[in-house]
Amino acid sequence: MTWLITGGAGYIGAHVVRAMTEAGERAVVYDDLSTGIAERLPADVPLVRGSTLDAELVARTLAEHEISGVVHLAAKKQVGESVDRPLHYYRENVEGLRVLLEAVTAAEVPSFLFSSSAAVYGMPDVDLVTEETPCVPMSPYGETKLAGEWLVRATGKATGLSTASLRYFNVAGAATPELADTGVFNLIPMVFEKLTEGAPPRIFGDDYATPDGTCVRDYIHVVDLAEAHVAVARALSSAPGRDLTLNIGRGEGVSVREMIDRINAVTGYDRPPTVTPRRPGDPARVVASAERIATELGWQAKYDVQDMITSAWEGWVHHHPEAARD
């Protein structure tokens, strides 16, 4: 099969491209390069530069490359920015998806995999979040992901398109230093940045109802996440009309304080964190149940938190050589 991977030059996207091609699938990347980096891609993977809002270019790409499945990763994903720019997020994430689905169904592409997020759950008051946990998103970003799931599912029911929505938890790590996350929006790179600057890492609130008072999250290695995409893509292509909604996580919670302690140990820095006030909307605990994908597809995560931190640090040093410790 030939898979069109939108957002394939991004951090997660490049790992999905790598996993797909290593599994013997053909990949074509569609990316506007607003945050993606073309150099992340193998030389033999075609890159079409454009927006999913460009209906003509999307349709032409599907036809010219004889696309037989789509992995839709392209999206705006900063929670805080989505609060300030909700119209922009709905346009990019929901209207962009609608345009893409319209082209996909017109071209009779049979399979569609949608990148969703644990942000659809909001502040779940449960120990483990299952796919049946009520979705109450707390930001326009989370709303656009939930609306995207609805749109994908409805399109599948109406047209016979095989669909899947993957709800990612906290993605970290790197397959190689070159593919590492270059953004500073998630906890691990945020801590790396502070350590490199000679500043203490920040904890946003230490008075939560958790064992050490800091937020607890479920972290998934980006390589495991990419392998999950391969498993789901193949499941869709082998079962016409299938509809899947799956958590992608490890089912293990790690607190912010524990994560910072581990990062200090891996990096060789020994800089205690400073505690600042809570950020609005941060739930105390969000940890996935990954039982459904294990039962239905036989997938489970292979890498642990230590692997994530170590590979992420190697990537950070690759992109920031001044951060290396003697």
Automatic annotation (TrEMBL):
<dbReference type="Pfam" id="PF01370">
    <property type="entry name" value="Epimerase"/>
</dbReference>
<keyword id="KW-0520">NAD</keyword>
<dbReference type="InterPro" id="IPR001509">
    <property type="entry name" value="Epimerase_deHydtase"/>
</dbReference>
<comment type="pathway">
    <text>Carbohydrate metabolism; galactose metabolism.</text>
</comment>
<protein>
    <recommendedName>
        <fullName>UDP-glucose 4-epimerase</fullName>
        <ecNumber>5.1.3.2</ecNumber>
    </recommendedName>
</protein>
<dbReference type="GO" id="GO:0033499">
    <property type="term" value="P:galactose catabolic process via UDP-galactose, Leloir pathway"/>
</dbReference>
<comment type="similarity">
    <text>Belongs to the NAD(P)-dependent epimerase/dehydratase family.</text>
</comment>
<dbReference type="InterPro" id="IPR036291">
    <property type="entry name" value="NAD(P)-bd_dom_sf"/>
</dbReference>
<feature type="domain" description="NAD-dependent epimerase/dehydratase">
    <location>
        <begin position="3"/>
        <end position="249"/>
    </location>
</feature>
<dbReference type="InterPro" id="IPR005886">
    <property type="entry name" value="UDP_G4E"/>
</dbReference>
<keyword id="KW-0119">Carbohydrate metabolism</keyword>
<dbReference type="GO" id="GO:0003978">
    <property type="term" value="F:UDP-glucose 4-epimerase activity"/>
</dbReference>
<keyword id="KW-0413">Isomerase</keyword>
